[in-house]
Amino acid sequence: MKVSIISLTCCAGCVSSFLNAGEALLEILSEDFEVVYSPTFADLKEVPSVDLAIVEGGVGTKDDENLIREIRAKSRILVALGICATHGGITSLGNMFALRDLLEKEYSLVEKTQLPELEDLMYPISNFVDVDYYIPGCPPMPFLIVHTLKSLVSGKEPPRNQSVVCAECHRKIIPAKLDRLYGVYEKESDPTLCLVSQGFICLGSLTRDGCGAPCPRSGFTCFGCRGPPDSMMYRVRDMYGFLIKVIAYRTGIPSETVKAELYRNPFIFHTFIFSKFQRSIAREKVI
Ligand code: SF4
Ligand code: SF4
Ligand code: SF4
């Protein structure tokens, strides 16, 4: 299988995660998985036709848009890797501001002339081309990437994850009686209880499983990097309202108070970007 690995506008963390797969990576890099094009590893100019294209990053420039269209035309299977490619992700945080304001504020006149031609917004790749499989995560865990690619190499459908992070976390969920929410740095957490039941803003109940819940297992809140699960895509239109209900139930804090606290917490913006573009994604193709 001939493979290309492409980075659009991103931090390159997803390809790094793939390379972090250790021995599993060696298992997959064989004659059945031959990387023939990757600007990260080799200085090739011509995009070749391949069986499988793995794309990280979102579409933020006209060059990205042209490239993703060319990649699609030259690939049999196209995989969107990481939440920038699948949903917009961190790179789409700039969508909260007008492009003109961002350019005025962040770039000098000289820098502006050196910028590539920008899109009006940062988009996931599905806004421009058909995607065969989505592997959300920021970055997706190495084992998730390798398992998916192994299935594709052997011609099988990759196994899908359709539950939520809470199912992998193993903390006990209880309805508590609290009077406020907490940042993870404000108090020590009980390692056995659900972080939301202790007043921390964990998004595990709104987030697709498959990562193994490394964040809540180590005492840190899930920030939703796997995007919404099947059960919430399309059906739950107000994810923010849903989160407020979950927190109010598990903490005993009135919904209005929870809402006010969430709007004060910039961490939540980091997380809820994933729901912005979910309607452009085919649910059946999310791993
Ligand atoms: S999904 Fe996260 S790790 Fe991957 S490219 Fe985007 S910001 Fe980087
Ligand atoms: S909300 Fe977070 S801490 Fe609570 S059970 Fe779910 S993943 Fe675990
Ligand atoms: S626990 Fe949440 S933030 Fe952490 S890797 Fe999983 S989905 Fe991402």
Q: Whole-Å distance between the termini?
A: 21 Å
Anisotropy-based shape: globular
The CATH homologous superfamily of the largest domain is named: NADH:ubiquinone oxidoreductase-like, 20kDa subunit
SSE order: EHHEEEHEHHHEEHHHHHH
Question: Regarding CATH, which class of the largest domain?
Answer: Alpha Beta
Which ligands, by name, code or SMILES, are bound?
Answer: iron/sulfur cluster
CATH fold-level label of the largest domain: Rossmann fold
Sheet with most strands: strand arrangement: 2-1-3-5-7
Helix content: 25-40%
What is the typical, i.e. mean, pLDDT?
Answer: 88
Tally the beta strands: 7
Just name the CATH architecture of the largest domain.
3-Layer(aba) Sandwich
Count the DSSP helices: 12
Compute the number of structural domains.
2
Strand content: 5-15%
Enumerate the spans where pLDDT stays under 50 for 5 or more consecutive residues.
Answer: none
- Largest sheet geometry: 5 strands, parallel
Structural class: alpha/beta
**If you compute it from the alpha carbons, what radius of gyration comes out, rounded to the nearest whole angstrom?**
20 Å
Structure description:
This protein has 287 residues and is an alpha/beta fold. It folds into two domains: 2-159, NADH:ubiquinone oxidoreductase-like, 20kDa subunit (Rossmann fold); 166-278, no CATH class. Helices cover 32% and strands 13% of the residues. The strands form two sheets. The protein has a five-stranded parallel β-sheet with strand order 2-1-3-5-7, sandwiched between helices. α10 packs across α11 (255-264). The mean pLDDT is 88. The structure holds iron/sulfur cluster (3 copies). One iron/sulfur cluster binds at residues 10-11, 13-14, 56-57, 82-84, 89-91, 138-139. The site of one iron/sulfur cluster has 11 residues, from α9.
